[in-house]
Amino acid sequence: MSLITGSPLGAQVAQNDGAVMNRVVPVQGAPASFADLTAQLQPAVVNIATRQRVEVQNNPFAGTPFAELFNRRQGNAQGGNNAQPQTREAQSLGSGFLISADGIVVTNNHVINPPDTRAKLESITVTLADGTEYEADVVGSDAASDLAVLKIRSNKTFPFVRFGDSAATRVGDWVVAIGNPFGLGGTVTAGIISAVYRNTGQGGAYDRYLQTDASINRGNSGGPLFDMRGNVIGINNAIFSPSGGSVGIGFAIPAEIAAPIVEKLRAGQEIQRGYLGVRLQPLDEDLALSLGLPKRRGELAQVVEETSPAARAGLRSGDILTKVNGKDVTADQTVSFLVANLQPGTTVPVEVLREGKRLAINVTLGKRPSEQELQAQVQNFDPDAEQPMAPGTSDQTIEQKLGMQVMPMSADIARSLGVPVETKGVVIAAVDPNGDAAAKGLRRGDIILSANYQPTASVEALLAQVTAASNERREAILLRVQRRNTPPAFIAVRLRS
Q1: Which CATH number fits the domain that encloses residue 206?
Q2: Which residues participate in substrate binding (predicted)?
Q3: Which pTM value belongs to this model?
């Protein structure tokens, strides 16, 4: 390794015919101290603690030949259908920050809604820098962007901070993170912006982060990432770490993405996003070589969902999407990101490469499904899997009235169930073992074709019939149900009050 000595600091430039270009001379050293900035900002940063109630399996032998024996020993000779579910308490810790004097707090959705979907949030405690504790309520949350807005239960006036312009952030800028790592409240770390608009490869509409080497650990989630002017330019969200601790690679949601969503949640507005209905794969080096295209430009349509906006517009599997609404598709600007930031109903031009020819196709975007529905579309549906009821993951009225959870039918689920892909209905995802549906023999994988003789091609259609039956004070609803390798049958299920 060669060693160059005697050179001045700063990047050097080539000389041509004796003309020397101007050098960029760096500011001398780091900030003398972050103390004054921290003193101003820290009062607006809060610690967030939550308590959840998690339903657990009260029969350790569920799904085995010993299940009935266990139930009998517990005094339930009916096989456990009357046994009450058991719960345990869970806790989570995170960070957040105040954005208004009346106690509005911003944090990550996963801080208050842990990935364990069986957890039901019971309480939120917000602790200020001076140690004062307050109860808080959820104003709104959004799983797709992993953002949540809380309101402190108090009429006091609180210190607060504002969002800055993350679009102006440059690699190398100083930043400060304040949060609650490992439950150690009021921890301050500093570093620089390592990358802007970093795509982590995890997929999703908002896989686009500021990367920083400011130390971020578990418990920093939801906390602010400040610039040197004291503005929030990012919300600390995740780390890359083989060990589970900080290795200098942290990710923050850029303020330019977070701020508009936070305002909508704060106003109680529904977050609506555009939707194409295409499963995409970035063009890696091998794909690009096989198609004669530059790498890191465009995405390959692996699957075009039937009846989706993309299918209706004429997009096909194998198309290379290169532009959306006039913007290039790149690793830092994915199709999912571009589409999700457009409103449903918007008609946008999509430039595709098909069999070597460039085409411009106008697509009228649909409404992006929930994260649970999207997850259900891409997962292989196993009708024989033991799937307990997970509160809050489907329509609550259907859960309460029918004692089951349902999901929309998709082509992949239809294939898993061995029925034609054009089958219209909703699929039972889980059944409450204590309900009448379970007593009538309904189970995961059954398809509800109609309710009270009305087709149920969607969850909303089933909900409408359940609501109508309840309003008419009916005690049961007539379902037409299809199971694999059996003809459809009518089954009456009692409605819970």
Answers
A1: 2.40.10.10
A2: 110, 146, 219-221
A3: 0.67
